[in-house]
């Protein structure tokens, strides 16, 4: 009988906002290498996530877009490379739109992003062990 992947969780990513689960340490290390490792750009010296370096390097190409879209909300310093990212930011941060609700009964927590809700549900915060201690 094959055991479903989530029944064999032995490691999870502790990077802020991630909480992805893995069946072993080797898979976790591969995930960290591909998703959370930083690389220094040889052109401008900024640190970039390994998974984003190709996109970042395109900004240095001739005709590449270095122009970023600034959030217009007073006091907000966020900038974005895509209008869709700006729209999502405005909905989540400034309008506090949280359409994703935790599926666990009695929780009711709401989230602006689906992946954050998914990480919350997988985090184990709803797992409660009911143990009775019987003197032996």
Break the fold down into its secondary structure elements and pairings.
Layout: E1 11-12, E2 21-22, H1 25-35, E3 38-40, E4 47-49, H2 53-58, E5 69-70, E6 79-80, H3 83-94, E7 100-101, E8 110-111, H4 114-122
Antiparallel strand pairs: 1-2, 3-4, 5-6, 7-8
What report would you give on this structure?
With 136 residues, this protein is an alpha+beta fold. The protein has a domain at 67-123: Classic Zinc Finger (Double Stranded RNA Binding Domain), CATH 3.30.160. It has four helices and eight strands; from the N terminus they run E-E-H-E-E-H-E-E-H-E-E-H. The strands form four sheets. Strands 1-2 form a two-stranded antiparallel sheet. The chain has a two-stranded antiparallel sheet with strand order 3-4. Strand 7 (100-101) and strand 8 (110-111) form a beta hairpin. The longest helix is centred in the middle third of the chain and has 12 residues, at 83-94. The radius of gyration is 20 Å and the shape is flat.
Question: Which properties best describe this structure?
Answer:
136 residues; Double Stranded RNA Binding Domain; two-stranded antiparallel sheet; flat; nucleus
- Class by SSE composition: alpha+beta
The shape, in one word, is flat
Query: What's the alpha carbon Rg, rounded to whole Å?
Result: 20 Å
Mean pLDDT: 79
Number of DSSP helices? 4
Question: How is the biggest beta sheet arranged?
Answer: 2 strands, antiparallel
β-strand percent reads 5-15%
CATH class of the domain at 67-123: Alpha Beta
Distance between the termini: 37 Å
Q: What is the assigned CATH homologous superfamily of the domain at 67-123?
A: Classic Zinc Finger
User: Spatial order of the strands in the main sheet?
Assistant: 1-2
